Amino acid sequence: MNKICLLAILIGVNYSFAQKKEVESSDKMRSYSIKFCPTQITVGEFNFSYEQRVAKRISIELEVGPTISQFGIGFGNQRLWQGSSGIGLFNFKPIDYQAKNGIGFLFSIAPRIYPTGTPYTMKKFYISPQIKYRVYNYNMRDFNEVLDPTKASVDQLTFRFLLGLQFWPKDANFSLDVFWGLGLTSYTIRGKEYEYLLDPNGYTSTPYWNSYRDNGVMFNFTTGLKLGFGN
């Protein structure tokens, strides 16, 4: 019995020693990081994220935050992307260029694998498949002030692979996360158009909001920098 107890103690000590040895003396074990991505403001996102380590080399990151339409250079800015008046790179029916800013939201989940860094440190190169859902809302107004205001929206569902590098400068509690990603985005445009009903003689009469929908798939590329703190 004493031999069994002694053997169990030795195994426990050796396991603890081996786990500590995996973390280099210059690195610090990490459990989580709370981040903000200022570069996503360029596409109308206020992007906040939380990364939690769940295994030796694996973590899970969640992103949440509001979106602002008609802001920045992203697909949510219909003034820039619409086919006839903007860049015209995509063949879709855009939301009216006179649409006003609205508040939407975003959510994403992404497991991360750190294949080359020191275990338990959430550091250096990582690979991360990501699923992201994003909504841009628009406020539609009748400039003739006949119709009540209404809303339109663009929904986006994205799947992509991210490659990145995460650093903890001077082993402090501040993190820098640089990433690149490529994938596919499916989108649905739920728009409104200002139109008129025709009377039997073919003359315009009563105005109304005409609803329409357009959808498709497009390539998605992203890059950016996240600033964080954690332990």
Describe the structure.
- The protein has helices spanning 2-22, 78-81, and strands at 32-37, 47-53, 58-68, 100-101, 103-113, 124-140, 150-167, 174-198, 204-230.
- It contains two helices and nine strands; from the N terminus they run αβββαββββββ.
- With 231 residues, the protein is mostly beta strands.
- The chain has an eight-stranded antiparallel beta barrel.
- A hairpin with a 4-residue loop joins β2 and β3.
- 11% of the residues lie in helices and 54% in strands.
Short description:
This protein has 231 residues and is mostly beta strands. It has helices at residues 2-22, 78-81; strands at 32-37, 47-53, 58-68, 100-101, 103-113, 124-140, 150-167, 174-198, 204-230. Helix content is 11%, strand content 54%.
Any key phrases for this structure?
231 residues, mainly beta, eight-stranded antiparallel barrel, 2 helices
Overall body shape: elongated
Report the biggest beta sheet as strand number plus sense, adding barrel if it closes: 8 strands, antiparallel, barrel
- Low-pLDDT stretches: 15-21
Count of runs of 4 or more consecutive helical residues = 2
Q: How much beta, percentage-wise?
A: over 45%
Helix-strand pattern: HEEEHEEEEEE
Spatial separation of the terminal alpha carbons: 42 Å
Give me the side-by-side strand order of the main sheet: 1-2-3-5-6-7-8-9
C-alpha Rg, in Å?
25 Å
Structural class: mainly beta
Work out the number of β strands. 9
> Helical percent range?
10-25%
Mean pLDDT: 85
